[in-house]
Design brief:
By secondary structure, this protein is of the alpha/beta class. Helix content is 48%, strand content 19%. The two termini are 32 Å apart.
Amino acid sequence: MKTFSIVIPVYYNELNLPDTIPQLLSLDDKLPNYRLELVFVDDGSRDHSLEILLDFQSRFPETIKVVKMTRNFGSMVAIQAGFTVATGDCIGMISADLQDPPELFQEMISYWEKGIKAVFAVRQDREDPFMQKQFSRAYYSLIRKFAITEYPDGGFDFFLIDRQIVNEINHIQEKNTNLMTLIFWLGFKPVMLPYIRRGRAKGKSRWTLSKKTKLFIDTFVAFSFFPIRILSIIGFVVALSSFMYGAFILFYWLFFGIDVKGYVPMMLIMTFTSGIQMTMLGVLGEYLWRTLDEVRRRPHFVIDRIYDSVLTQNSNANRTAG
């Protein structure tokens, strides 16, 4: 019998888990030809999420695994940690807040059984606030235009992939990346299933503006040369403009003379060029910082403990991945 694993990152989801876990467990009856494995990754939650997970794990020790991280490493890293623990022949990923329909996994598996190694549930629309929807649309539009032209228009973070893809992800071990974009970049031809993402019914999203901004920067630094190339173009244009303006001043001084004037244009040029330079240094700093983070060889994450059965829950402490 083949195993179907689902990785669920958990961060302050105590209000969602009592509803989410039973719905995921119900897939066991809907997929009789598969052994279901649920891998919940507690990403440093400080509410009662872990206690709820351990309660369900004690009742369903053959189905539920709980991975406890030492601290909050971020949702992308939590998913990667779950990939290292999941044993399935195919692995799904779904968020813990029930905004995505778990029953869609049945259709995903039907495609996987036909030999499709990647099935993405693509958001056709989302029941979210207006500004959040606009931010999402702008984000994915920029990815398609400047990074990966064939990337799904609505994006995805609810998917099913083959064991081969999981092994590739575990082997790459790339830091500061967008995991979904990395999966798409691998090049396995996916099937895309459109769906409407539901609004969040319980709890408060921890997907803050700062985290969204970091993911935006990570995506472009990891998958696009556009930021560096635009700096080269701006530098060339500014240098050419400066040369032409300097030639004009020299010509005017040689043939007509120049009074001591020009404070305003001089200050405008200085503030403009200094602003461009600082922006360039900031973009270069983003690349250099990520390069430093890679060469330091620190682990992506540290697993404090894995609860997978009564007999082994104390034997898997202090696992790291680098």
